[in-house]
Protein backbone atom coordinates (compact mmCIF):
# COMPACT_ATOMS: atom_id res chain seq x y z
CA UNK A 1 0.00 0.00 0.00
CA UNK A 2 1.22 3.48 -0.83
CA UNK A 3 1.97 6.20 1.66
CA UNK A 4 -0.84 8.74 2.26
CA UNK A 5 1.42 11.60 1.13
CA UNK A 6 1.75 9.94 -2.29
CA UNK A 7 -2.05 9.83 -2.67
CA UNK A 8 -3.12 13.23 -1.25
CA UNK A 9 -1.18 15.93 -3.10
CA UNK A 10 -2.79 19.21 -1.98
CA UNK A 11 -6.05 20.64 -0.70
CA UNK A 12 -8.27 22.55 -3.12
CA UNK A 13 -8.94 25.92 -1.50
CA UNK A 14 -11.56 27.83 -3.46
CA UNK A 15 -14.67 29.76 -2.54
CA UNK A 16 -16.86 26.76 -3.32
CA UNK A 17 -14.71 24.35 -1.30
CA UNK A 18 -14.72 26.79 1.64
CA UNK A 19 -18.54 26.74 1.59
CA UNK A 20 -18.51 22.93 1.48
CA UNK A 21 -16.27 22.77 4.56
CA UNK A 22 -19.27 23.83 6.65
CA UNK A 23 -20.94 20.54 5.63
CA UNK A 24 -17.89 18.39 6.51
CA UNK A 25 -16.91 18.10 2.83
CA UNK A 26 -13.28 18.68 1.78
CA UNK A 27 -11.63 18.72 -1.67
CA UNK A 28 -8.13 17.47 -2.48
CA UNK A 29 -5.91 17.12 -5.54
CA UNK A 30 -5.00 13.43 -5.57
CA UNK A 31 -2.77 11.09 -7.59
CA UNK A 32 -4.23 10.25 -10.99
CA UNK A 33 -4.14 6.50 -10.37
CA UNK A 34 -5.59 6.61 -6.82
CA UNK A 35 -8.96 4.96 -6.26
CA UNK A 36 -11.70 5.91 -3.80
CA UNK A 37 -10.70 3.31 -1.21
CA UNK A 38 -7.06 4.48 -1.17
CA UNK A 39 -8.15 8.11 -0.91
CA UNK A 40 -10.47 7.38 2.00
CA UNK A 41 -7.80 5.43 3.90
CA UNK A 42 -5.21 8.16 3.26
CA UNK A 43 -7.48 10.91 4.65
CA UNK A 44 -8.34 8.79 7.69
CA UNK A 45 -4.66 8.09 8.38
CA UNK A 46 -3.42 11.66 7.88
CA UNK A 47 -6.05 13.50 9.94
CA UNK A 48 -7.48 10.79 12.23
CA UNK A 49 -11.08 11.25 11.03
CA UNK A 50 -13.82 8.93 9.76
CA UNK A 51 -14.59 9.17 6.03
CA UNK A 52 -18.24 8.77 5.08
CA UNK A 53 -18.11 9.23 1.27
CA UNK A 54 -15.54 9.83 -1.49
CA UNK A 55 -16.32 11.25 -4.93
CA UNK A 56 -13.69 11.69 -7.64
CA UNK A 57 -13.44 13.81 -10.78
CA UNK A 58 -10.85 13.88 -13.56
CA UNK A 59 -9.89 17.12 -15.29
CA UNK A 60 -8.15 17.21 -18.67
CA UNK A 61 -5.23 19.58 -19.14
CA UNK A 62 -5.96 22.67 -21.19
CA UNK A 63 -4.03 23.66 -24.29
CA UNK A 64 -2.07 26.88 -23.77
CA UNK A 65 -0.02 29.10 -26.05
CA UNK A 66 3.33 30.22 -24.77
CA UNK A 67 3.69 33.15 -27.18
CA UNK A 68 1.17 35.37 -28.89
CA UNK A 69 1.32 36.30 -32.56
CA UNK A 70 1.72 34.76 -35.98
CA UNK A 71 5.16 33.28 -35.43
CA UNK A 72 3.97 30.75 -32.89
CA UNK A 73 1.17 28.93 -34.68
CA UNK A 74 2.31 25.46 -33.66
CA UNK A 75 5.71 25.93 -32.09
CA UNK A 76 4.56 27.68 -28.93
CA UNK A 77 1.75 25.29 -28.06
CA UNK A 78 1.79 23.43 -24.79
CA UNK A 79 -0.54 21.78 -22.31
CA UNK A 80 -1.28 22.11 -18.65
CA UNK A 81 -1.16 18.77 -16.87
CA UNK A 82 -4.25 16.65 -16.30
CA UNK A 83 -5.28 16.18 -12.67
CA UNK A 84 -7.73 14.39 -10.43
CA UNK A 85 -9.84 15.85 -7.64
CA UNK A 86 -11.45 14.00 -4.74
CA UNK A 87 -14.34 15.35 -2.68
CA UNK A 88 -14.34 13.68 0.74
CA UNK A 89 -17.28 13.84 3.14
CA UNK A 90 -16.53 13.22 6.81
CA UNK A 91 -18.75 11.85 9.57
CA UNK A 92 -20.57 14.20 11.92
CA UNK A 93 -18.30 15.81 14.49
CA UNK A 94 -15.08 15.32 12.46
CA UNK A 95 -13.25 18.20 10.81
CA UNK A 96 -9.90 18.95 9.18
CA UNK A 97 -8.01 22.14 10.01
CA UNK A 98 -6.55 23.05 6.59
CA UNK A 99 -5.79 26.69 7.31
CA UNK A 100 -6.38 29.18 10.08
CA UNK A 101 -8.32 32.35 9.39
CA UNK A 102 -6.93 35.63 10.67
Record the SSE blueprint:
Blueprint: H1 4-7, E1 8-11, H2 15-20, E2 25-30, H3 36-47, E3 51-59, E4 63-65, E5 77-79, E6 83-90
Antiparallel strand pairs: 1-2, 2-6, 3-6, 4-5
Question: How is this structure best described in words?
Answer:
With 102 residues, the protein is of the alpha+beta class. Helix content is 22%, strand content 32%. It has three helices and six strands, in the order αβαβαββββ.
Nearest-integer average pLDDT: 89
Share of residues in helices: 10-25%
How many beta-strand segments? 6
Contiguous low-pLDDT stretches (5 residues minimum) are none
The largest sheet, given as strand count, sense and whether it forms a barrel, is: 4 strands, antiparallel
Q: In percent, how much strand structure appears in the residues?
A: 25-35%
Order of helices and strands: HEHEHEEEE
**In CATH terms, what is the architecture?**
2-Layer Sandwich
Q: How are the strands of the biggest sheet laid out side by side?
A: 1-2-6-3
Number of helices: 3
- How would you classify the helix and strand content by structural class? alpha+beta
Radius of gyration using CA atoms only:
17 Å
N-to-C CA distance: 38 Å
Shape: globular
CATH topology: Alpha-Beta Plaits
The CATH superfamily title: RRM (RNA recognition motif) domain
Could you name the CATH class? Alpha Beta
Give the domain tally. Answer: 1
Q: How would you sum up this structure in a few lines?
A:
The protein has 102 residues and is an alpha+beta fold.
Features:
single chain; 102 residues; alpha+beta; Alpha-Beta Plaits; four-stranded antiparallel β-sheet; two-stranded antiparallel sheet; 6 strands; globular
Amino acid sequence: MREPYEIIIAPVVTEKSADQMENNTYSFVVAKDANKIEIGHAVEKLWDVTVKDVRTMRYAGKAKRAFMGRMSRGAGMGRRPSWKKAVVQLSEGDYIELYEAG
